[in-house]
Amino acid sequence: MYWSLDEDAGIDVVSKAMSRNRFREIKRNLHLVDKKDAPHTLDKMFKVRKLCDILIKKFNQWGVFHENLSIDESMVKYFGHHPAKQFIRGKPIRYGYKN
Fold first, then answer.
1. What is the C-alpha to C-alpha distance for residues 19 and 22, in angstroms, rounded to an integer?
2. Which residue in 59, 91, 57 sits closest to 76, CA to CA?
3. Which helix (H) or strand (E) covers residue 96, if one does?
4. One-character DSSP codes across 18-84
5. Beta bridge partners of 67
6. What is this structure's pTM?
7. What is the C-alpha to C-alpha distance for residues 11 and 1, in angstroms, rounded to an integer?
8. Domain boundaries defined on the chain
9. Is pLDDT above 80 for 34?
10. CA separation (Å) from 48 to 21, 51, 58, 84, 97?
11. Can you give the residue ranges of the PiggyBac transposable element-derived protein domain (predicted)?
12. Mean pLDDT of 26-47
């Protein structure tokens, strides 16, 4: 929806910076881990684990934290097949990734 022409859905900053086809091409070819380097662990998110560790380190370095900090969790809707996908009965978004 970043590239939508509707005034309430499109994001001008994104659509002016990159075309939708260019984004899809980058997304299709972006790989963070080779399958041959995959560890034999139960970590379902091993493909993005190194990126997450780097981001957390940078967020902690440059983040502004307060004494009273509230963090809420949310569900990102996902209907594809992935072992990290969760199902929570009785929620508005039942299938997806928990953040």
1. 5
2. 91
3. strand 95-98
4. S-HHHHHHHHHH--SS-GGG--SSS-TTHHHHHHHHHHHHHHHHH----SS------EEE--S--TT
5. none
6. 0.49
7. 8
8. 1-30, 36-49+72-99
9. no
10. 23, 5, 16, 12, 14
11. 1-98
12. 79
The three-class DSSP label of residue 93 is: coil
So what's the pLDDT on residue 19? 92
Residue 21 above 90 pLDDT?
Answer: yes
**Rounded Cα distance, 55 and 30, in Å:** 17
Does residue 42 or residue 28 have the better pLDDT?
Answer: 28
Residue among 86, 81, 83 at smallest CA distance from 96: 86
